[in-house]
Amino acid sequence: MLFGTAAGMLAAGILVTTEQFFSCTTNARLDTLFSFWITLALYLLYQGCVQEPPRRNICLLGWVSTALAVLSKGPTGLVLPLLTMVVYLFLTKSRHKIPRLAIGTGLVLVAGLCCLWLVPACLQAGADYTRNILLTQSFGRVVEAFAHEAPFYFYLISFPLDFLPWTLFLPAAMLYFWRTRHEQTLFLFPLVWWATVFIFFSGVSGKRNLYLLPLYPAAALLMGKFLSDVQSSEEVQKQVAQWKLFTVPCFMVGVLFISTGALLFALLANLMVPFQTTALGTVMLTAGGIAAFGAGIILLRAQRRHGIQANAPRALLIGCALVSVLWLWWIKPVLETDRPEKKFCETIQKTISPHDALYASFEPEFFNYFLHRYPIPVVRDPAEVERLIRSPSPSYFLVKERDFKRLPDQLKNHLLVLDKADIGHKTIYFLTNTPRT
């Protein structure tokens, strides 16, 4: 819609080959769903408000998507689309279009759709749940984080690393957009989208790399537009060929691709370590090695006397896609075989039967999934904790290290530590009240 089919396809490829986005979408996180609703909401609001003629029904569908974003991860789902649209309209001197957003009706629609779930949930779960979901989990993370607290500059360091390998080409893209800012202004929308999300989450007390996931489609759109222009315009090719900001990253990534191809050939020839794979695996690795080697050669030869080669962006994308596939199918499974949380869950499954009682001192979403227990009861009341520990019936517990240390010594004496593991930034204990022989 903004830049044409070629830029859109390049943006899609860039998005799926971005390290952080790729990792999150293969780990089934709510942040991926949240990012989808944010992206859809911005698309619909832009279509209904900015495009001519304005379409109120499209805007209302955007507010429905906003409501689903709120239901996915809280009020941020409302703040980000609304703030992005308003800031964009102000910067483009289009304040007269703000009424087209139907903000009043949209807020009522969002509130109504959210209350369809929120009100029954709070009535059923009680005051503690209501306080937690409305205050601690929402506004508490913004004002004073109870977890993942980090300084305001956290994302200035993390985003460049998480947007690799495309971070290497960001300086050239920024220079290009600055020099062409008067000829083309459509890139301002994804730029405002990116900046709004980045600045908002930088001001939030709690920070994690994956919180920035909603801005990755905007960053991919900008990079897709830049590479599309390099691919299609000889004038841009000649201009970019003079920039070390583009040719040096091309050289660096080209060397990486050639090294990857050479490594695959060495593995298949058993020149490094004993290596065996299936017939299909041999074919795929051979094809991957050839593709990586070829993409690297193209990028090393990207700088010509009269301009960048038109196929350089395509070679760059193919090489990055290849590396992503190799990571997903071969490298990541090998690395995950020794992950402590996986071994921890295997220990738990070997220790307890499906009928044994298992409790947790925290919300055990990770363990609900990997232990196939829906749900694992959460026990926080001190009296109930003491009753379960002193009970003659065998019970098992997943307890954070800080919760375990807070237990009175007389209760600790009734517990046996079966195992422990570092899960994220927490240490989790696996305990039982019945010593095993």
Characteristics of this structure?
437 residues; mainly alpha; 6% strand; 3 domains
Briefly note the structural class of the backbone.
Answer: mainly alpha
Task: Give the distance, in angstroms, between the N- and C-terminal Cα atoms.
Answer: 67 Å
Strand content range: 5-15%
Q: Major β-sheet, in short? A: 4 strands, mixed
Described by the principal axes of the CA atoms, the overall outline is flat
* Count of individual helical segments: 20
Q: What's the count of strands?
A: 4
The percent range for helix content is 55-70%
Order of helices and strands: HHHHHHHHHHHHHHHHEHHEHHEE
Topology:
Blueprint (H helix, E strand, L loop, with lengths): L4 H12 L2 H7 L4 H20 L6 H18 L2 H16 L11 H23 L1 H17 L10 H9 L7 H10 L8 H16 L12 H17 L1 H7 L3 H25 L10 H22 L11 H25 L3 H12 L5 E4 L4 H6 L11 H9 L4 E6 H6 L2 H4 L3 E8 L2 E7 L5
Parallel strand pairs: 1-2
Antiparallel strand pairs: 2-4, 3-4
Q: How would you describe this structure to a colleague?
A:
There is one protein chain. The chain is mainly α. It has three domains: 5-159 and 185-216, no CATH class; 233-336, no CATH class; 340-432. It is 64% helix and 6% strand. It is built from 20 helices and four strands. It has helices at 5-16, 19-25, 30-49, 56-73, 76-91, 103-125, 127-143, 154-162, 170-179, 188-203, 216-232, 234-240, 244-268, 279-300, 312-336, 340-351, 365-370, 382-390, 401-406, 409-412, and strands at residues 357-360, 395-400, 416-423, 426-432. A four-stranded mixed β-sheet has the order 1-2-4-3. The protein is flat, with a radius of gyration of 26 Å.
